[in-house]
């Protein structure tokens, strides 16, 4: 009896563990494949999430703004009466109605702006070159020079300017203009008569800005306080 049990134990012990392990792995793979195939035929609810109708409708309503063209209105120049320059009069303004209209594509408008800015930059560099030449001829203004007085912007050659190494986008184009230049711009725009009264009004405004407040001391007397008499409340 003991011999039979020993023989059966040896047969079981002698079985290859690799083969039994391989058989168990094949069973697991086959079961997983059968599970995957069943899922592909009948997908479970956990793997399928329907898209929301509300979100889809919201995405369809989303719109973007697209610019196709630029409309530019041109106004003729007139004497302003609307600004206070640091000196002089002859302020610059524009007429109440535009004189012409032009439409550009976005690319054309960008090229036009670059051309205008480059022309303004060229004129500004010419002015700087002219002033430097005049200072050199007059020894920083200490002596008179007929040659310096005869020089104009037209005498400055573009070959003497360094336009290629100057960034147009970094240039500040709103440059202040002197009274002489403002008067020249008005005349070139067809303004035949410049109102000289504006110059006196602007001078009075600049003086009034230098002296602010009343002259009262300790307390304000409404009967003598300049602010009170002018209808200005105490600060």
Automatic annotation (TrEMBL):
Residues 1-60 are annotated as: Disordered. The keyword RNA-binding does not apply. Residues 31-46 have a biased composition (Low complexity). One of its GO terms (molecular function) is sequence-specific DNA binding. It is found in: Nucleus. InterPro entries: CSRNP_N, Cys/Ser-rich_nuc_prot. It comes from the Eukaryota. One of its GO terms (cellular component) is nucleus. GO terms for biological process: apoptotic process. Residues 62-235 form the Cysteine/serine-rich nuclear protein N-terminal domain. Pfam families: CSRNP_N. Keywords: Activator, Apoptosis, DNA-binding, Nucleus, Transcription, Transcription regulation. Belongs to the AXUD1 family. This is Cysteine/serine-rich nuclear protein 3.
